[in-house]
């Protein structure tokens, strides 16, 4: 009699263990399926996926344009402001040398409708490692945008047919006129001299 009770209890215990493991397995499987379903719903589109190739650039606060077409509207703004668009890169020594002259324009033209835009043509791999720290150290974040479109020959004529493609190059325009200045400015006075006719 006792043996039968023991066998019954052992059988019942094994049965409960099997049921418990089955329930745990089903619960884990269900959770995994829920995770997969969530991943499917949140999977980025092709466009968003390409943006995620440069996530840290956005967190730095520097606007990033992957294609020239996205940047181009800046060159066609029609208002009462004069825009000084400088194309440069951290690997370009003459570019780095002339940047302080563009920074000087803040105090010279603080009461004028003039805006400086420093368009970095740095390589994508250098944006996080070099550009972000450089613009922060030199306190020029508010002026810098990044253009990652390396197909220069496809778009330099859209900036100016006169542009050879070499940097630094500065394109100045307003609603009445525009001009391209190739090469580095040696000093702030030289830069001011070419801006003045636009103001």
Description:
The chain has helices at residues 2-42, 46-51, 55-59, 68-71, 93-108, 124-137, 152-159, 188-195, and strands spanning 64-65, 82-88, 114-120, 144-147, 169-173, 178-182. With 199 residues, the protein is of the alpha/beta class. Strands 1-4-3-2-5-6 form a 6-stranded mixed beta sheet. α5 (93-108) crosses α8. The longest helix is centred in the first third of the chain and has 41 residues, at 2-42.
Offer a concise description of the structure.
The chain is of the alpha/beta class.
Global mean pLDDT: 81
What pattern of helices and strands is seen along the backbone?
A: HHHEHEHEHEHEEH
Helix content: 40-55%
Figure out the total of helices.
8
CATH-level-2 architecture of the largest domain: 3-Layer(aba) Sandwich
Strand segment count: 6
CATH level-4 homologous superfamily of the largest domain: Glutaredoxin
Flag low-confidence runs. 34-56
- Major β-sheet strand ordering: 1-4-3-2-5-6
Structural class: alpha/beta
CATH class of the largest domain, please? Alpha Beta
- Report the portion of residues in β strands: 15-25%
Under CATH, the topology of the largest domain can be stated as: Glutaredoxin
Shape: elongated
Quaternary structure state of the chains depicted: single chain
Describe the main β-sheet briefly.
Answer: 6 strands, mixed
Query: How far is the first residue's CA from the last residue's CA?
Result: 109 Å
Over the alpha carbons, how many angstroms does the gyration radius reach? 30 Å
Instruction: Tell me the domain tally.
Output: 2
């Amino acid at each position: 009699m006792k043996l039968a009770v023991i066998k019954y209890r052992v059988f019942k215990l094994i049965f409960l263990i099997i049921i418990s493991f089955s329930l745990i397995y089903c619960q884990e499987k269900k959770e995994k399926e829920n995770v997969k379903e969530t991943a499917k719903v949140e999977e980025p589109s092709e466009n968003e996926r390409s943006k995620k190739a440069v996530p840290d650039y956005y967190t730095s606060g520097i606007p990033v344009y992957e294609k020239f077409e996205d940047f181009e509207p800046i060159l066609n703004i029609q208002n009462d402001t004069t825009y000084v668009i400088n194309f440069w890169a951290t690997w370009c020594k003459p570019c780095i040398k002339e940047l302080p002259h563009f920074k000087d324009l803040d105090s010279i033209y603080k009461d004028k409708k003039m805006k400086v835009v420093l368009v970095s043509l740095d390589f994508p791999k250098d944006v996080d490692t070099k550009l972000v720290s450089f613009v922060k150290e030199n306190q020029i974040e508010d002026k810098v945008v990044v253009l990652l479109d390396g197909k220069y020959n496809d778009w330099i004529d859209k900036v100016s047919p006169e542009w050879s493609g070499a940097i630094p190059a500065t394109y100045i325009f307003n609603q009445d006129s525009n001009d391209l200045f190739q090469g580095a400015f040696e000093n702030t006075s030289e830069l001011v001299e070419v801006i003045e006719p636009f103001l």
